[in-house]
Automatic annotation (TrEMBL):
Domain of life the protein comes from: Eukaryota
Name listed for the protein in its UniProt record: PGG domain-containing protein
Any single GO CC term annotated in Swiss-Prot or TrEMBL for this entry: membrane
Classification of source organism: Eukaryota, Viridiplantae, Streptophyta, Embryophyta, Tracheophyta
Keyword Transmembrane attributed: yes
Tagged with keyword Transmembrane helix: yes
Chain ranges passing through the membrane: 158-182, 202-226, 238-261
Native source species: Quercus lobata
Keywords: Membrane, Transmembrane, Transmembrane helix
Amino acid sequence: MRTGRVRDAIVRATKEGIFEFVFEMVKADPIFVFSHDAESSNIFSAAVQYRRAKIFGLIYGFNMKSALAGASDSSYGNTLLHMAGMSAPSTSLDHIAGAALQMQRELQWFKEVESIVPPRVHGHLNKQGLTPQQLFTKNHEDMMSKGEKWMKDTASSCTVVGALIVTIMFAVVFTVPVLMFLGILTSRYAEEDFLESLPRKMIIGLSTLFFSIVAMMTTFSAALLLMLHEQSWIFKPVICLASIPITLFVLMQFPLLVAMANSTYGPSIFDRKMKRWF
């Protein structure tokens, strides 16, 4: 009875992401990694379902990784990869800005779990008759649709700014951001595109757009200074007024560029270098 309550507590702690408690319990007695409920086959299954990356990272330091990764629950027949194909709890995605980045994070989870499960799991059917990939597609249709709309809306607004810069500067080099955003608008928007292809285009587009804005303002300021070098009282207010909309646009879009770059090329949320602890 007491052991059963301990296992229940470990499963609840896994779902809540209480890493310290889970780690100390399974380290004291590794058999506790098999703690489960009706929806999961072990703690790693629950960690994937509730997107607890730190707890899931413990699997890299466990010498029974293949056995754990290949297990399925008795109630629904879902494997670890099926769990990655389920929709993430909203609380695990609330801190991620934009539906496209949320879709990217879900794909990162699926690909990470896919890389460690035995090959036979890829085609395993649960009791609904769905493979993990089919379950992922079914559960993420709405998120994918919202991600497509988010990417197109962002690209459209940036295309307008880029087109204005091209009109003002008359330089071929400034067409690069416009072309990148047009590439986003005309993409096929397959699931895989959200993992790296679309974010890469957005990163390049925003980076070149910011460079174009800086170059335009530098050129504008230099030209104005040459024309009004003896009337600085006119020059400074004009530059300040012209900088206001540019500054507001950069402040709104630059955090997006940083978030997308970190999500695509930054450190992984999964601790693959976890030391062997059992």
